[in-house]
Amino acid sequence: MQPQIFSFLFLFFIGFASAGYLQNPDFESQPKSLTENTSSPFVALNENNTIPGWTFQGTVQYVTAGQTIALPDNGHAIQLGQDGKINQTFTADADYTNYILTFTLAPGGQNCSANADVLVSGPDSQGIFSFKQHYGKEAWQSYGQHLGLGGQQEPINLVIESRGVESDDNSTCWPVIDSLLIKTVGTLVQGKDNLLLNGGFEFGPEFLSKSTEGILLDSALSPVLSPLRQWAVIGTIKYIDSNHFFVPHGNAAVEIVSGVSAGIQTDVTLTTGSAYSLEFTLGDANNACEGDFIVEVRAGSVVQNFTVQSNGTGSAQKSSMKFEAGSRATRISFFSYTSSQTKDGTFCGPVVDEVVLLSSNGLRLAIKPNILISLLFLILIFW
Ligand SMILES: *[C@@H]1O[C@H](CO)[C@@H](O)[C@H](O)[C@H]1NC(C)=O
Ligand SMILES: *[C@@H]1O[C@H](CO)[C@@H](O)[C@H](O)[C@H]1NC(C)=O
Ligand SMILES: *[C@@H]1O[C@H](CO)[C@@H](O)[C@H](O)[C@H]1NC(C)=O
Ligand SMILES: *[C@@H]1O[C@H](CO)[C@@H](O)[C@H](O)[C@H]1NC(C)=O
Ligand SMILES: *[C@@H]1O[C@H](CO)[C@@H](O)[C@H](O)[C@H]1NC(C)=O
Ligand SMILES: *[C@@H]1O[C@H](CO)[C@@H](O)[C@H](O)[C@H]1NC(C)=O
Ligand SMILES: *[C@@H]1O[C@H](CO)[C@@H](O)[C@H](O)[C@H]1NC(C)=O
């Protein structure tokens, strides 16, 4: 009986959906009244143009992929120049759920002295992105951003705007935006075989089906506002999918790519003085990332280093740690102590997956106090 109730609750709370929230999410419907220019991949939009599905302001150009600019699936994109801004309002579902955005950023030009930043805002959070470092083979990169919580069919306004750089000279490259995707993730409910939520990293931004590049997640210090649900991100990590990388378990895992002191962490409330074990899998993503990676794993007051010896061909090694919960929330974290690059200069690193936290005396113990209190409460009511 109980497992069925569990699965039911699980299915009920984890609303899964994607696609269909945004109109013209990849800018393939071309702007109205566009004066095409065969000699340039960038065409400035003016007051007579409209981008289907979107509103724009400031300097905005319609971009066509070609020799000077690469885009996912080729096609078209939008460049946000000086004070450039686009926005679109979509309708939230009836039930409250988290909205997570995947989008692609490309540097809009060559030989830039500086890349202008891009600010992505939703109802509850905003993130600043810029093209600082290459973490893949393509000229463009995809990023994930938590937009916020929405429900009751309320409007959610997604705004993407450029942020000028200080040395605003002619060699500034303005950001090019493409391939937006929205995914919803409902409230996660503790499963019966793991005290951690999203321990397998299955709940995060949606992958672009044809991209072999994964999705970059920049620092998100609050697990509530993180695109990797329940986990804070420090530094830059790459969210990788099993269709294009070696992933030890399920469909997704985390690769820590920005080197020393980058990683992920979460806090969990446990029973003070009780014994727990933390199991996890470390490895490499089969992306030619070779070397000995040191990963520092923390579970409460126990901190230990683990070394992943990687040939860059996909490996997974299970490890575990035992610890006793203190009186405060217990921190679980994975930090990389190695900065790695593939032979062609791409930044890369160790993979973390399938993090499972269990009570050493059987998982049930952790939930028992609540059940006892509820029972006592019921008894008192009926007394
Ligand atoms: C077409 O692009 C070229 C090169 O960027 C530019 O010099 C020219 O002014 C553009 N023509 C129009 C009609 O916008
Ligand atoms: C917009 O359209 C109007 C009317 O056709 C025209 O007078 C004006 O020059 C156009 N503006 C631009 C920037 O092309
Ligand atoms: C863009 O935002 C403005 C308010 O800031 C709103 O009036 C407009 O409808 C939005 N555009 C779209 C396409 O949702
Ligand atoms: C960028 O620099 C390279 C090498 O210096 C040069 O060949 C190329 O024309 C430059 N591109 C632009 C757009 O200035
Ligand atoms: C930018 O380009 C314009 C026109 O090409 C030129 O007049 C101006 O001096 C340039 N500015 C800088 C800071 O290079
Ligand atoms: C893990 O290794 C790093 C780098 O060698 C070191 O700075 C850190 O103190 C080590 N942590 C533990 C818990 O040994
Ligand atoms: C790495 O390659 C060596 C030599 O080919 C092999 O002996 C070793 O088992 C490999 N290690 C992993 C983790 O795949």
TrEMBL record:
The signal sequence is 1-19
Q: Where does this protein chiefly localize?
A: other
Q: What InterPro entries has UniProt attached to this entry?
A: DGR2-like_dom, Pectin_Meth_Modulator
Keyword annotations for this protein, in alphabetical order, are: Glycoprotein, Secreted, Signal
Q: Which domain of life is it from?
A: Eukaryota
Question: Which Gene Ontology cellular-component terms appear in the entry?
Answer: extracellular region
Q: One Pfam annotation, family name? A: DUF642
Compartments it resides in: Cell envelope; Secreted
Q: Which Gene3D superfamilies match?
A: Galactose-binding domain-like
Q: Where is the DUF642 domain?
A: 20-183, 195-356
PANTHER family per record: EMB|CAB87702.1 (PTHR31265:SF28), OS02G0527500 PROTEIN-RELATED (PTHR31265)
Protein name in the entry: Uncharacterized protein LOC110427848
* Source species: Herrania umbratica
- Could you tell me the gene encoding this protein? LOC110427848
